[in-house]
Structures are given as C-alpha cells and as structure tokens.
Here is the input.
Amino acid sequence: MSSPPTLLDFIDDEMLRVPMTVDQVTDAVLEQWRVRMPARARADTDPARLLSLHRGDLVTHTLVALRTSALVDLKDLTSGSTTSHRQPGETQQQSLSLSLSLIDEADVTLDIEIARCTENLKTKAEIALRELQTFTSALANDLNVSRDSNPFRPERFVRALWTGLQKLPLTNALRATYLRDASEPLAKALRRAYTSACQRLEEQGVTPAAYRTIVVNGNTGWGASVSRYQPPKDLHKLRDSMPGGFDGLPPVKAMAPMDIMARSAALPSLPTVPAHPAAPAATAEPGGPDPQLIELLARLFEAIQNDFKLPADTVSLLQRLQPTALRIALRDPSLLDRYDHVLWRFMDQLVHDIEISPSAQRMRVLGLGRNLIDHLAQPDTREQQGFGWALERLLAAQRQALNQAVVRASADIAKLERIASAEATPTTRTMPLDIAHLDTVRADLLNGPPADAAVAVMPAAGVPPGSTFRIYLQGEWRTLQALWQDDHHEYVMLDDPVGDQRWALHQRALARLLSEGLAHRYKIRSLVRRAADKVLRAL
Here is the structure.
C-alpha cells in the first residue's frame, strides 16, 4: 500500500500541469488580439506576434515564480510562520532610492488590473477553491482550516503570471491588457484545475479537513442601502429594558444596611463629575447600586469582546477595565447619554492603537494601555485625572511615534520636497487681484460634476500626517501611515513600519486606489455603539 501524499508531493504533481494552463490562457488571449488589436498597442508593433514568439519565456518564468512562492508557503506552514513573502523579481529595496518608490497613476493602473484579475478568479472558482482548501489543509495537518494552505491560490497564480509577463518585451500597458483579457479564460482553467486536483487527492486516499461556512445576512452585505447596525439613541432606554436582577446579585431592597455600607465603601472614590444637564434621575434604589446598570454594562462588555473578534490580549485589557467603568457609571449618569463619552473614547482609541500597531510595537502599546488602566483603577489616587487624562496619554504616545517616524524619513522627505518644488506650477494665489479685469462665470456652471471622479474622493485637506491606510500596492495589501504631504497636495509620503519601507505616491494615484476600493483609511470605530445594537437585538 502506497503512503499518502504530502504537500510537497502535491506541489510537484501540480507543477507538471501548470504549463498547460498557461498555454491555454495564452491561446485565448492571442485569439482575442488577432481579432482585435489592443487599444494601447503601438502602431509599429504587433502585440500578438510578440506574445506568440515569447510565450515559452512566459511559461518558464511563470513556473519559476510559482514554484518559488509554493516552496516559501510550504516552509511557512511547516515552521508555523505567517510572514508574507514577495515574489521573485519584486523590488526589495524600495527605500534606497526615491525614484524606485515614487508611484504614479500608471503604476496604480497595473495594481488595479492585478487586483481585478485576482478577485475575478476568487469569484468564478469559489466552490472548487474552497473544496481544494480542505484537501491542502489535510496535507498540511491543519484539520481546522485555520489558514490558507493552498500554494496555487488565485493571488499566487496571478502574481506569478505577472512576474512572467515582466520578462517579455511588452509595455506595461500591454501587460495590463493581457491580465484583463486573460481574466475569464484563467478563471475557467483554474476552476477545472482545482476540481481535478480534488479528485486526484481523493483517489489517493486523502481525507479532507472540516471547514466552517459563515452565512451573512443579505441586508448587511456590500452595497446594501440599510445601515449595518442601528443602535439606540442613547443607553437609558436600553438600561430600562434590562431585568431588575440577575444571578449572583440579591435584590437591593433585601440587603441589610450594613451590607449596603460595606458595598459602598468597597467602591474607590472618584473625582466629582458634574451632572449632565440632560441626564435623567437615577432609577436605582437609594443606598445601593442599580442592578439594571450593572447588567447593561456586563452585556455591553460581553458584546464588545465577542462581536469584534478581538485578540486575547486586548480582551484581557477590556476585562480589567470593566470594574472601573462600572464605578464611573455609578457616579456619572452622563455615561449613558452619549456614545462619545470620554470613557468610551478611551476604549475606542486603545483598541484602535493596538489593532494598527505593527508586531514590533504591539507590546509597547499593550504595556501602555495596561499601565493606564491600572492607574485608573487605583483607589484614593490624588494624581488621577480620569479617562480624559488617559486618552491624552494615548494620543501623546501616538504623536511621539509619528514624530520619530518623520525624523527617520527626513532624508526621503527632503528629496520629495525638491521634486515637488521642481514640478510645482506657477500660482497666482499670493498675487493681488484686479477685480475690474476678472472674468465671470455663470453660477449654474459651477455646480457640475468634478472633472475627475477620483479627485473627488480625496478631501480638500489632502492626507493629514498620521493617517493610516490599508492599501493594495505591487500585489500586496499593506498597512501604511502618512508621514508628510507637500503644500500643493501633489505627493504624500507613506511609511511601512513592518517592512521598514517608505512609499511616495501621487495623491491622484491614492485617490484612484480609494475610488477603486483598493485603499481604505482606518477609522476609530465606536465599540459601545455597535455593542448597544447587538444587545438591543438580543432582547
């Protein structure tokens, strides 16, 4: 009886079939180009002839890139590492020369075509891709399908194909056209390849791993007109709907006077907070805590910890913060009036800073949050300034980290400043105006749509330093922070703290990525607002 195959055996077996897949896709593209020449082809060149002459080079370089990435994935799976690796041929030293990292709209167009092709493959081959994932997870001994173990997943295949295209004597416009025209035939070929691979692995005796399917409600998907969650206006009505008592807490009226005094004395003294002018009168019994308020806060914190799938270290911080939040709520009724109370803002800022911090700085952010929460929980602390002071400490640490990153990037910023100054066009904004010689324009002509829809995506203030983006650049999703922008908002310097790289983008290129959905700006989300909606739906 033959031994079951390993993931390396699967890679070797599938690599023998990759040339046929690339050939089929190239034949489909050549057929399209022979019928209709690509729009961006030069008049003195024949793109179909060039592609036909160098199709062997395309297959060879695609094979090399795909096998290299598959072996890197295999090494990561066996070692337990989750570090992403670049494809062969990609630039590894982006920060050494500013000209290498200056990205304009032409470069962004290539990224958009790569992303569109990858997304089309995932959509068209979704069922076969999901089934193959269970088999490759079994080969990788990942029975719960906790990570993507398919070495031939769509993004890897597209990036390998793009690496092979870069070796051909074609312009970037023709390479992008190849990806666009190859999207449909490549999706069909990969769907067949994935299905055949599953059949072969099943015949070889491989038992697929189990996977879980997440079903999303139809009115919460992309493009839905209804809001994802609709929290109540404030937390007072939600508090009133809580049960009067819960397990482990005796009724307030039944508590003896000595027990009430002991419970009150156990609460640390808090700074006096003026009552909110619109705050309603407390509904708790005199001399004791409000059981409905305690129940509400318990459910809110439970919903926050479960709904956002927070890491264990972040959850532990919020659990340590819960008793302090309860003591604040007993003294400050305005906590239930609005979702931007300083306590909720501190929680939102802390979770946001932890989520966007790179792995090298994560422990520092966690340590800062732990120290602030411990300080807020200390009883009879004269130096305590409340959650407003703690929030300012988080913002100060954020500003300090930004200033340090700007100092490290000062040389690149200086180069980019010289480029921006050299390319700046003359302006008349500082010149005096002669009203008598000004031309006038009808008012109804000023309300038309912008000339470029992508420009409308960018705010008038450009990109403020410190803004964090999730951007798809050169075949990878990256978390980048804005360090600098010029006065005319033509360029923006972005820093990648994980890879220690810097990227200079034309802001029109960034606007194009935003309009295509390939760039998203991180925003501080309100944890309690969404938790309130979840608690309301559970009632």
